[in-house]
Amino acid sequence: IMKKYTTCENYKSYKDNNLWLFDERFMIYTYAYSDKTINEILGIKDDSTRPDICIFTKTKENAQDIVIIELKGSDATGEKNAVGLTETNKYTLKIKQYFENNGVNVRIWAYLITNLGDKEKRDLELMVGIQKAYMPKGEMYYIYNDKLNSTTHIYSLETMVEDAMSRNQLFLDILRGDQ
Hints:
Order of helices and strands: EEHEEHEHEEEH
Mean pLDDT: 80
Number of strands: 8
Structural class: alpha+beta
Number of helices: 4
Largest sheet: 8 strands, mixed
Radius of gyration: 17 Å
Low-confidence stretches: none
Distance between the termini: 30 Å
């Protein structure tokens, strides 16, 4: 998705990453960080928390859209997924507080990419507030946290790739006149 321990400060470096897999909106960004601590990203002292990928974009309303991506391995279980949700909330809170303290309104989109077997899906479906959506291949779960102004999406790497391929294939078909 993005080379580990790197920083991209120019969206024109799109060849250096595959951020488009999440959403084409996130292709135009101000900064993208991979495996950098929040301290390194924002200059917050005494903070060693480290999202796997963190992206900052600007919108017309001068609000900052922030994307936080947490990747769990294919061996992820219900416990690792719960930790992943906790981690994304922790990163979201720290980043949100930083921007709000500087008078900037933020919207945060969090993604937890993980293994979703039957047990993990059942665990997610039992969690209060979690919604389920069907994708071209597999399911996606999401939850909106109004206290953080954040939506967290939870799905597998296979579902993410299949969804990106479907979105882009339709676009290519339209451009070619196949639709």
